[in-house]
Design a protein that fits this description.
The protein is mainly α. The longest helix has 53 residues.
Length: 105
C-alpha cells in the first residue's frame, strides 16, 4: 500500500513537472537557461584556448630574445679590436692616411 502511494505521488510529481517544463511559460525559460549555460562553457573554453596561445607566443618571444642576445654578442666578438687587427694583418690592410679620410658634415 505504501509503495502504491509512493508511486502515485511520484507519477503526479512527474506529471506536474512535465507539464511545467513543456508549458508555454516553462519551456522558453528552460531553453534560455540551457543556452546561457552552453554559451558560458563555450566562452570559458575559448578563453582557456587563448591563454594557451598567449603562453606559446610568450615562449617564442623569450627564445627570440635569447637568440638576439647571442647574435649581438657574436657581432661584438667579430667587431672587436683584436679581431679587426687580425683581419687587417691577414689581408694586408693599413691605417688610412690623413688625405684618405673624408669627413661628411
Amino acid at each position: 500500500m505504501v509503495t502504491k502511494k509512493k508511486k502515485s505521488t511520484e507519477s503526479v510529481i512527474l506529471g506536474k513537472l512535465k507539464s511545467a517544463i513543456f508549458s508555454s511559460r516553462g519551456f522558453p525559460l528552460i531553453l534560455t537557461f540551457a543556452t546561457l549555460g552552453i554559451l558560458f562553457v563555450l566562452f570559458r573554453m575559448k578563453g582557456i584556448e587563448l591563454d594557451y596561445q598567449i603562453s606559446d607566443v610568450n615562449k617564442q618571444i623569450e627564445t627570440v630574445t635569447i637568440e638576439n642576445k647571442e647574435l649581438k654578442a657574436r657581432k661584438a666578438r667579430l667587431l672587436s679590436v683584436n679581431k679587426l687587427n687580425e683581419l687587417a694583418d691577414k689581408y694586408d690592410l693599413k691605417q688610412p692616411d690623413q688625405s684618405q679620410i673624408i669627413v661628411v658634415p
